[in-house]
Amino acid sequence: MPEPLEFTLTLYPDPVLRKQALPVKAFDEELARTVAAMFERMVASKGVGLAAPQVGLKKRILVLNATGDKKDDLALVNPTIVARSGPETLFDEGCLSFPGIYAEVRRPDRCTVKAFDPAGREIEREYSGFESRIIQHEFDHLEGVLLVDRMSPADKLTHKAALQELVERYKKKQAALARQP
């Protein structure tokens, strides 16, 4: 039996977060292990959604759970949002790649998604409310769009110090890695 995968969160401004994720080609045991480990990281981080780039993977995978009940776990592989509809609402969004930072983001209430489940079965469904918002947020990650890109100028100003702290932390980490033999 292969070792279980364990992921750590990738934080802003790591460049992997800005890259467009690539389609998953194989619906195999490795994908199932990846999805399971993503759910574990999401829950351990007290999140409601997680996209593969947030754990350093350039793959089009997102997982979410809007209720916290295990039966509501949803994994979407190679998702495409084919329609967005309904009234646009403002909601305070957080992001595991931006710990402690929240910003009001405007999104349509509903989205229709075409995707595959981890077993390779096709899914096409409309989601609404909180579930739709999570999907749209995580889908942004697959496209290299981040919370900071959706922030109003006022939210950017409010969070300027926290954003700068994340940048400084990333620079220190990179410098430390560069010094390793």
Structure description:
By secondary structure, the protein is of the alpha+beta class. It has a single domain, classed as Peptide deformylase (Peptide Deformylase, Alpha-Beta Complex). It is built from 5 helices and 5 strands. Strands 1-2-3-4-5 form a 5-stranded antiparallel β-sheet, sandwiched between helices. It is globular and about 45 Å long.
In whole angstroms, how far apart are the ends?
33 Å
What structural category arises from helix and sheet content? alpha+beta
Tally of helical segments: 5
Biggest sheet statistics: 5 strands, antiparallel
Helical percent range? Answer: 25-40%
Query: Which class in CATH terms?
Result: Alpha Beta
Which secondary structure elements does this structure contain, and how are they paired or packed?
Layout: H1 29-44, E1 49-51, E2 61-64, E3 74-94, E4 102-116, E5 122-128, H2 129-142, H3 147-150, H4 153-158, H5 160-179
Antiparallel strand pairs: 1-2, 2-3, 3-4, 4-5
Summarize the model shown.
The chain has 181 residues and is α+β, with helices and mostly antiparallel strands.
